[in-house]
Amino acid sequence: MFATAVILFREVLEASLIIAIVLGASRGISNRGRWVAGGIALGLLGASIVAMLANLASSVFSGNGQALLNAVILLSAVAMLTWHNVWMSAHGRQISSEVKAVGSNVQSGQRPMTALLIITMVAVMREGSEAVLFLWAIATSGEQSMNMVIGGLGGVVVGILVGLLLYIGLLRIPTRHFFSITSWLILLLAAGLAAQAASFLNQTGLLPSLGNGVWNTSNILSQNSLTGQFMHILVGYIARPSGIQVVFYVGTLLSILLLMRTRKSPSSIKGNN
Amino acid sequence: MRISLLLSILVGVFSINSPVLAADEPQAVLQIEHQQFAPNQLSIPAGAKIKLVIRNLDAVPVEFESPDLSREVIVRGHGEITIFVGPLEPGNYQFFNDFNREMQGSIAVKPVTNKGN
Prior knowledge:
The complex is a heterodimer. Chain A is mainly alpha-helical. Chain A has helices at about 1-25, 30-55, 65-100, 115-140, 145-170, 175-205, 225-235, 245-265, 265-270. Chain B has one domain: Cupredoxins -  blue copper proteins (Immunoglobulin-like), CATH 2.60.40. Chain B has one helix at about 1-15; strands spanning about 25-35, 35-40, 40-45, 50-55, 60-65, 70-75, 80-85, 90-95, 100-110. In chain B, a hairpin with a 2-residue loop joins strand 1 (about 25-35) and strand 2. Chain B is globular. Classes of the chains: A mainly alpha, B mainly beta. Chains A and B meet through helix 1, helix 3, helix 4, helix 6 and helix 8 of A and helix 1, strand 6 and strand 7 of B.
């Protein structure tokens, strides 16, 4: 029972932390809760469909398709996080000053709602399909299954609570620094997800590895440890990265930074109060 | 820009039915039976890209995962998948089943002493 709780906790953690960061970063944008909730619902639906397909012998998801799907999901999350960050770099100052002034939501401009929806959807879908598959397997395996399902659900709840804690922690950051901190979090998150996508593409043989183990810090911080896993999700820490992962990580980081610089609107720079 | 290029590559691959599997890399087979990897230590030569076939003889799905190798793939019950590993430096690379972490194994990458021609 405890083992299942731990497994489900780990599966849920990634989605939970990503959603917490995105919810934090979109603070002050009106109706964001509705879009994020919609994303979670669609993600659960998608996860169930993927899990069902992965269980079919003839399905493309039983082989290379699975890794390709993961890569596509991760890269679309990267694209959406990029869009979100670029949009925020143009509007963040305005939102930040309005949050400070009235403490309420902003209703202006073209807001990256689709980005919010897609990020939460794919975050839930990715790890969610694994969780569904796992729960399904134990639920149908008889005997102790009820205990295990309860344990699993406990793990899910704890995973969600950890995300909630991160969200509450984020909200405690002073408004002055808030959006610069969340935009750095999103930047590192996106770079880490891009590196994960690279390893999925390498796994299918589509991309070269460009050297395995560019460095190995497993004995300093193992990726199997809880801290290692947190760092892996939040900033893309990899204990033993391949060359292609490093290339994707750095490439994504620099591309987003560059986009943020160039799209920063002059009005947002002037609006300095 | 890079992302859209990648996506178009992906779409292309989906439409031409996995040409990657047609490559003639050396192959290694890992079997899963009674919630154990067999063999649980796999030896492969250094510096070569290996086609790794993972065959699950059990009814429950297994998530083959290895941070050392940056690999993560679900093998459904009574299913089989193929992934690529390497080329790797000599050393030991751990892997495990993320759905049952007591189920572990490793890949020993041996230096190639005689390259032949």
